[in-house]
Structure to design on (880 residues):
């Protein structure tokens, strides 16, 4: 089903074009466009621009006040119909009724139903919303701004304006979208925006950027919210706040994304039943008015029929079902922010997921340490350990993984004999680092690790099978081929090289990294979660198609997908989809299990296109780059460790990163849907049959087949019996595939199943008329009592026939609450005519022989319903 996009695509395209234009211009032209210079703005101009552009902060969607949630709880078509009936009943039963006939019973009964439904829905949704964490502001930091030609000063980031000159250093958060003016070894981490863990190098040069290029890939543009990992730079601010690239993402999550598949389904069913009611009620009114001559009684009876035709418990049952599902999932450490998303779990047929932290552990391990021949070699681990252990800089995840693997492997004796002499620190330009160590005999060794290409550039020798030989072009190609194979297995590869001819000195530099001997490689993985393997298998078994949507590269993604059990049907890249139509994108995306190198907007677009082609789509992610996709999806799923914008965008937040919870959510969603659909089909078909019965009785009887108050009481008792449905079971076969709304299926169900009750209502009419002589005004109460009991019992009992495809009470038994409630209401229905309350609503005791006929009618009704059910399933292959 489509979740409409009313969104933010134009804004993001405008930002992208603007940044590309700034990237392509000479820096003097950029200054001219921004009316600034290398000396920065003066304070007066900066204050004016701050007033014009606003604070440099991200403004997210604000939480709605409590009364908006309360108002929304009333905006349900059935609630509105019931409110209208209360309004009409006030005039017919109170305002214009004779003093002796004034009655608040109808108003009271309907008001109770409204109050239950509205209260449940309001309290659950508002409580869920305030439980979820509020979105926090982006930053409370300062940045170095040059103004008035003076040296840069630290100023609150919120006061940054377009045209400001900013000085950046390692560790700085980039405060706005900037064009780089000059830089030295500038490496920026963009993982929060793109999902890629590797820092990217930026340059000041202007260049011609491809219009299809991802904004994050433009070399001389630094984006708001990214981080300077190393180096320094000076840049000019181009865009700030919500007009930044990050701001466009935040803005997009505040938009109205329209109805979910659940809401569309309930609305379509509501429209169908309302149309049916508007057609049938006037007909009943006219027939009774014409045949009986009492137009006021006909009006009251028609109002009662309208109540009977309205599945007034639908809002209550929907709210109760969803609230029960929310409580059930909260026990599994899941916060439900939007109740309707529970049912969407059940309707979901495609799950799109980010890779990092969802399918993977979001931690690095040393998977393999190989010599140049590709065999595991402890010597490679020892040298890698010495390099990582003895560096004094900030140890990254790769260093920690090497040290942990070395400690677990037991190489203490081999490494303890070495002492550190010096080190050559890592930098992103040469992409390697070195340490110099000496053993107990005083022999020195230079050990270097780094990216394979850079390592090969400083090696002249290679160690193979213990022999040191020259590094030839042929060997070089074989080495790079092996590195590529390891990359295809999802590994990040570092090469290890040594040099024994080291001078006896204490200071070493980059120039010493030459004429080295390559000894092997280390392969690192962000391993897949064990839970993701079993979870993906379970999701496929439950009829879901799983797709990976990631900003990371396709090689690593393919490996992770393979490891967790996602078939690699086809791989689609962000650059492939930038210029194609939605129709072409759907064709490609529907066939692809991996979509890599995607921008946030491309993720959102993929989900929207799938929705427009009748799919219900879920998305699982936790980064800034996932926020738009989370908001667009029918079910947005995040985790409590996610960035704030991702949690704000999500419908569901998992407190534990265990993907098996997804399976439980899917099953819970299908159970919720099944029980809601069960009520709708049972009630709609029963009401449909009752209308035919009423039409026939109204046309041929000299009196009303049932008084309005009797009809309302019968309807209330039946509605009470349905309160237990949220606690009912669903057959295992039903839970194995996605379940989606289909109003035409409900219409068909009504037409084929509804008339069964009419058949036995007519049988009841005949029995009461001919067998018990209830065929006159004097015996009207007996006739009405007989139909009151049969109507209530058949409606209540039929739940057990319709709730399952199987044979009721034999192959499938309802839950204890349903069985108990059925028994209680059936007993109450039989007893009421014998009580003072029964006399109050003009019912009379029934003769003993009536109950023999009642048993026969109920048994016959159950048998015919079961036979019809078998035929219906064989013909249409559907049921609940």
């Amino acid at each position: 089903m489509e979740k409409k996009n009313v969104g933010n695509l134009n804004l993001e395209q405008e930002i992208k074009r603007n940044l590309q234009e700034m990237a392509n211009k000479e820096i003097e032209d950029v200054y001219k466009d921004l009316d600034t210079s290398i000396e920065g703005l003066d304070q007066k101009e900066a204050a004016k621009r701050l007033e014009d552009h606003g604070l440099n902060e991200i403004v997210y969607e604000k939480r709605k006040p409590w009364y908006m949630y309360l108002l929304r709880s009333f905006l349900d078509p059935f609630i509105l119909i019931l409110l209208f009936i209360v309004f009409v009943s006030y005039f017919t039963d109170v305002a214009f009724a004779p003093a002796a006939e004034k009655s608040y019973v109808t108003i009271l009964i309907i008001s109770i139903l409204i109050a239950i439904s509205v209260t449940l829905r309001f309290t659950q949704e508002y409580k869920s919303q305030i439980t979820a964490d509020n979105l926090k502001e982006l930053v409370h930091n300062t940045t170095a701004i040059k103004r008035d030609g003076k040296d840069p000063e630290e100023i609150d980031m919120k006061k940054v304006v377009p045209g400001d000159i900013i000085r950046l250093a390692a560790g700085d958060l980039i405060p706005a979208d900037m064009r780089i003016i000059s830089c030295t070894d500038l490496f920026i981490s963009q993982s929060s925006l793109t999902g890629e863990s590797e820092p990217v190098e930026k340059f000041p040069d202007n260049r011609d950027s491809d219009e299809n290029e991802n904004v994050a890939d433009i070399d001389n543009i630094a984006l708001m919210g990214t981080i300077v990992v190393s180096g320094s730079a000076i840049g000019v601010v181009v865009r700030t706040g919500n007009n930044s690239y990050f701001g466009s993402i935040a803005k997009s999550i505040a938009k109205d994304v329209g109805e979910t598949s659940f809401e569309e389904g309930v609305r379509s069913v509501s429209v169908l039943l309302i149309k049916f009611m508007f057609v049938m009620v006037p007909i009943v009114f006219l027939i009774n008015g014409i045949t009986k001559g009492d137009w006021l009684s006909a009006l009251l009876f028609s109002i009662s029929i309208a109540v009977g035709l309205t599945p007034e418990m639908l809002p209550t049952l929907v709210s109760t079902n969803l609230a029960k599902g929310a409580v059930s999932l909260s026990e599994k450490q899941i916060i439900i922010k939007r109740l309707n998303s529970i049912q969407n779990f059940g309707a979901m047929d495609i799950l799109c997921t980010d890779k990092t932290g969802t399918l993977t552990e979001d931690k690095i391990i040393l998977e393999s340490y190989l010599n140049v021949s590709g065999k595991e070699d402890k010597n490679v681990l020892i040298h890698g350990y010495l390099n990582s252990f003895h560096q004094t800089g900030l140890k990254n995840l790769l260093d920690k993984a090497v040290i942990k693997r070395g400690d677990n492997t037991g190489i203490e004796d081999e490494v303890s004999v070495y002492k550190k002499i010096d080190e050559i620190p890592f930098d992103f330009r040469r992409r390697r680092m070195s340490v110099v160590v000496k053993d107990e005999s005083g022999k020195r060794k230079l050990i270097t690790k780094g990216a394979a290409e850079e390592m090969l550039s400083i090696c002249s020798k290679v160690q193979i099978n213990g022999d040191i030989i020259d590094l030839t072009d042929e060997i070089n190609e074989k080495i790079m081929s092996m590195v590529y194979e390891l990359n295809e297995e999802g590994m990040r590869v570092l090469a290890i090289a040594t040099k024994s001819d080291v001078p006896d000195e204490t200071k070493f530099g980059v120039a010493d990294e030459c004429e080295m001997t390559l000894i092997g490689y280390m392969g690192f993985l962000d391993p897949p979660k064990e839970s993701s393997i079993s979870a993906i298998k379970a999701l496929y078994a439950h009829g879901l198609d799983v797709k990976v949507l990631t900003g990371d590269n396709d090689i690593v993604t393919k490996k992770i997908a393979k490891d967790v059990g996602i078939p690699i049907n086809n791989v689609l890249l962000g650059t492939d989809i930038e210029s194609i139509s939605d129709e072409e994108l759907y064709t490609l995306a529907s066939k692809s299990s991996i979509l890599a190198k995607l921008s946030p907007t491309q993720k959102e677009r993929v989900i929207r296109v799938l929705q427009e082609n009748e799919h219900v789509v879920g998305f699982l992610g936790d980064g800034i780059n996932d926020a738009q996709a989370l908001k667009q999806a029918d079910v947005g799923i995040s985790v409590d460790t996610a960035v704030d914008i991702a949690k704000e965008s999500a419908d569901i937040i998992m407190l534990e990163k265990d993907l098996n919870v997804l399976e439980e959510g899917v099953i819970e969603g299908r159970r919720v849907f099944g029980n809601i659909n069960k009520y709708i089909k049972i009630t709609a078909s029963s009401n449909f049959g009752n209308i035919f019965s009423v039409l026939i009785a109204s046309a041929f009887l000299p009196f009303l087949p049932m008084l309005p108050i009797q009809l309302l009481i019968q309807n209330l008792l039946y509605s009470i019996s349905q309160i237990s449905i949220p606690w009912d079971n669903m057959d295992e076969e039903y839970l194995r595939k996605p379940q989606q709304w289909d109003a035409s299926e409900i219409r068909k169900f009504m037409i084929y199943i509804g008339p069964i009750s009419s058949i036995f209502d007519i049988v009841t009419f005949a029995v009461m008329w001919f067998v018990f002589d209830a065929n006159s005004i004097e015996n009207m109460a007996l006739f009405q009592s007989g139909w009151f009991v049969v109507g209530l019992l058949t409606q209540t009992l039929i739940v057990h026939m319709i709730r399952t495809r199987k044979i009721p009470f034999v192959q499938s038994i309802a839950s204890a609450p349903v069985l108990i409630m059925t028994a209680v209401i059936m007993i109450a229905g039989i007893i009421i005519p014998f009580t003072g309350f029964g006399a109050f609503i003009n019912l009379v005791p029934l003769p003993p022989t009536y109950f023999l006929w009642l048993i026969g009618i109920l048994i016959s009704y159950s048998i015919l319903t079961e036979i019809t059910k078998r035929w219906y399933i064989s013909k249409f292959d559907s049921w609940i």
In short: Residues 29 and 474 are 49 Å apart (CA to CA). Residues 1-8, 132-140 have pLDDT under 50 and may be disordered.
